[in-house]
Design goal:
The structure is a homodimer of 330-residue chains.
Chain A lengths: L2 E6 L2 H13 L4 E6 L5 E3 L2 E3 L1 H11 L16 H8 L11 H15 L4 H12 L4 E4 L6 E7 L14 E5 H7 L8 E5 L10 H7 L2 E4 L8 H5 L4 H7 L4 E4 L2 E2 L2 E2 L4 H7 L6 H8 L6 E4 L7 H6 L3 E4 L7 H20 L1
Parallel strand pairs in A: 1-2, 1-9, 2-5, 9-10, 10-13, 13-14
Antiparallel strand pairs in A: 3-4, 6-7, 6-8, 11-12
Helix pairs in contact in A: 1-2, 1-13, 2-5, 4-5
Amino acid sequence: MRRILVLSGGIGGARFLRGLLRAAPEAEVTVIGNTGDDIHLFGLKVCPDLDTVMYTLGGGIHEGQGWGRADETFAVKEELAAYGVGPEWFGLGDRDFATHIVRTQMLAAGYPLSAVTEALCQRWQPGVRLLPMTDDRVETHVLIDAPDGSGNDGGADGRRRAVHFQEYWVRLRAAVPAHAVVPVGADQARPAPGVLEAIAEADVVVFPPSNPVVSVGTILAVPGIREAIADAGVPVVGLSPIIGNAPVRGMADKVLAAVGVEATAAAVARHYGPGLLDAWLVDTVDADSVAEVEAAGIRCRAVPLLMTDTEATAEMARAALTIATEVKAA
Amino acid sequence: MRRILVLSGGIGGARFLRGLLRAAPEAEVTVIGNTGDDIHLFGLKVCPDLDTVMYTLGGGIHEGQGWGRADETFAVKEELAAYGVGPEWFGLGDRDFATHIVRTQMLAAGYPLSAVTEALCQRWQPGVRLLPMTDDRVETHVLIDAPDGSGNDGGADGRRRAVHFQEYWVRLRAAVPAHAVVPVGADQARPAPGVLEAIAEADVVVFPPSNPVVSVGTILAVPGIREAIADAGVPVVGLSPIIGNAPVRGMADKVLAAVGVEATAAAVARHYGPGLLDAWLVDTVDADSVAEVEAAGIRCRAVPLLMTDTEATAEMARAALTIATEVKAA
C-alpha cells in the first residue's frame, strides 16, 4: 500500500489527509482535489477545496474554522465593501487573497490549473502530490426554488433557478431545498494531466469522509475518472461522512436529498455502489448498518470516525488501510 | 474663474489640489490625471497618480508618505513574497490592493478607465471631476544604461535599455542616468471622453507643481491635449516644482536632465514655452529668475511655493488664480 490515491473535497478530506500522513509516513500520497466548488470572485480564481488541502497540510490553515488562513486579516474585503463591491458573504482574507492573485496571474499567463497548483504547493509543501481533478472549468450548480415574490429566496410556485454551489452553501447556508446538483461542464471536462496515471499506479484508492455528492461525486463526474478507479484492480475504500444519520460537519444531508440518497452511512455506501467501492467504514454508532452494507456487496466495519484530533484521524486511516489489505487478500 | 482645469501628476498635484479647493470652494475643478505611470502588477492595473489624487482629496491618503492609504497593512504583499512573487520594491498595501482589484475587474468587464475612475470616485468624493488623460495604454519608459557585466544596473559601454518609469523611479530611485523619457503609446492615444470638452469649457488651466516631464509632460504628449490648451483662449498658469534649483520633492531634476532641461524654475517655464504658458509662479528664493521668465514672454511672479500645509498651499492657489486674472485682463 505504498501509493495511496485520495479523492478529496475541502475540510473533511484535508483533515483526513493529515491523519493519513501520520498513519503512513512512508506512503506516496496523491490527492485528486475537487474543483467544482471553484468560483470567480472579484475577478480572481478561487479554489476553496484545493486551498483547504494545501493550507491544512502545509500548516497555514485556520484550525478553528477549518478553511482559510491562520492569523488572517480582512482589510481588502472591508475596502471592497466600501466600494460597494461584493459578494460580502464570501469570506476572503488578506493572506488568502494573495493565493488567488498568484493563481489568477498564472492562469492569465497561460498555465493550466494543475501547473499553478503545483507552483503554489512549492511554497506549502503539503507532503502529498495535489492534482486538480481537471484543468477545465467545472462549476457545481444547485437547483433551488425561484423567488415567488414573497421576498424569500425560494418560492413555492414550482419555478426553479440554478445558483453556484458557493451561493447555495455559503450565502444560503443550504437552508432552502436543493432539487438537483449539477456539475456544469463536467461532461466536457478531461482529467488533469497525471490524474489517470496516478489512478493506474495506485495501490489503494481512498474516499475520505468528504461530501459524497459535491466533493467526491463531482470528481467522479469527470469522464474517465470513475471508470479508471473501477478498472484499476486495487482496493477502493471509503469512510462515511455520515454518523448517526447526520453529517459530521457541514450540510451533506441537504445535497444527498437532492440526489435521492438517504443521509445514512449505509445509503451513501450503496450510492457509491459495489461496482466502485470495495470497502466502507462506518462509525461505531452505526454498527447496525454493517450487515446492510455487506449485503450490498461492500465489505464493512464499524470504527470510531470522529476526527477529533490528528491521532484519532490517523487511527481511521489505519483502519482504512487495514480493510483495504483485507480486500486485496480476499 | 469658475471652471478650473488642472493637469496633475501624483503627490505634488494632489496636495496642490487640496489647497486649490480651499482657495476656491465654489469652483468646478476638473483634473486631468497622468496615467503614464500606470503599471500592471500581480495581474492588476495600478494607477498611482489617479489614486494619489483620489485618496488625497477623499481623505484616505497616508499623509506622511503622500501616497498609498492611511492605516495600511501589508499582508497580501508579504504573502506574495512568500510565494516568490514580486516585485517586492513596489509597496502595495492591503487597502490599496482593493482599489486595484475593483479597477481590474471593471476593466476586464469592458469599462474604460475613465468610467472606472468615475466609479471609484463615487466612493471617495474627491470634490473634483477626475479624468484620466486617456483610456488608452500609455506607459512611460526611461532609457538607462544597459548592464555591462560589472554587476551594476547601468554599465558604461554605451548600450541602453528601457525600463518602466516605476522601475526607474521606485526600484532604482532615479539613481542611474536617464538618457530619454518615452511615453510609449502616447502618439496613438486619444484623450479620454470629456478631456477636450473640459479644456474647451475651462476658465483657467493650471499646471500644479507636478513633474514637468513625466507628469504634466506626459499628459501634454497625448495628441490633442496640448493643442486644445494652447487654443482655449484662457489663461494657462503654472507653479514651479523647482525651488532653488532643486525639486521640492522627488527627483524631477533627473528626468529634466534626460530632456535637456536645466533644473531651474526659469528653465522649466521656458520648457513649457510662451506658446502654451501665460504665467508662471516661482518661489521667493528664485525671485532673481522672474525677469528671465518674463523676458521669454511669460508673466511671472515670486511667491512662497512650499506646500507646508493646506493653508500655505491655498495661498499658492490664490496667487495662481490672481496672476491668471491679470493675464485675462491684459
